[in-house]
Amino acid sequence: MYIWCLHCECVYPSKDWRKKGQQYGFCPNCGASEFTDGWNWSKLVKYNGYPKIPEVGKHYPLYPESGEKF
Ligand SMILES: [Zn+2]
C-alpha cells in the first residue's frame, strides 16, 4: 500500500511513513502527519489516472497540468 502526501505531493510506501506498530506516521520527505495529510494512493489513481504502482519518492501533483503524462 502506498500513501501520498498532500503537503509535498510525493508518494511513499506506508512502511516508510510508519514506525513499527504505529497506526499513523509521518511523511518521510517533509514530516507532514499521515493523519491529516496522508492520502491513500488509490484516490490519486482514481482521480488522475496515475499508475497503480507509483514511483516511490516521485512528485505527483494533485492537479496535473492538462496534457501532462504519467
Ligand atoms: Zn510530505
Euclidean distance between termini CA atoms: 19 Å
Beta-strand fraction estimate: 5-15%
Q: H/E element string? A: EEHHEH
- Average pLDDT score: 93
- Gyration radius, in Å: 12 Å
Which ligands appear in the coordinates? zinc ion
- Low-pLDDT runs of 5+ residues are none
Helices, by number, come to 3
Q: In this structure, how is the largest beta sheet organized?
A: 3 strands, antiparallel
Summarize the amount of helix as a percent range: 10-25%
Strand order of the largest sheet: 2-1-3
Query: How many structural domains in the coordinates?
Result: 1
Form type: elongated
What structural class results from the helix and strand content?
alpha+beta
Q: In total, how many beta strands?
A: 3
What are its keywords?
single chain, 70 residues, 3-stranded antiparallel β-sheet, binds zinc ion, alpha+beta
Structure overview:
It is a single chain. The model has no long low-confidence stretch (mean pLDDT 93). A hairpin with a 5-residue loop joins strand 1 and strand 2 (11-13). Helices cover 23% and strands 14% of the residues. The chain has three helices and three strands. Strands 2-1-3 form a three-stranded antiparallel beta sheet. The chain is elongated. With 70 residues, the protein is an alpha+beta fold. It has one domain (1-70). Zinc ion is lined by residues 5, 7-8, 10, 27, 29-30, 32.
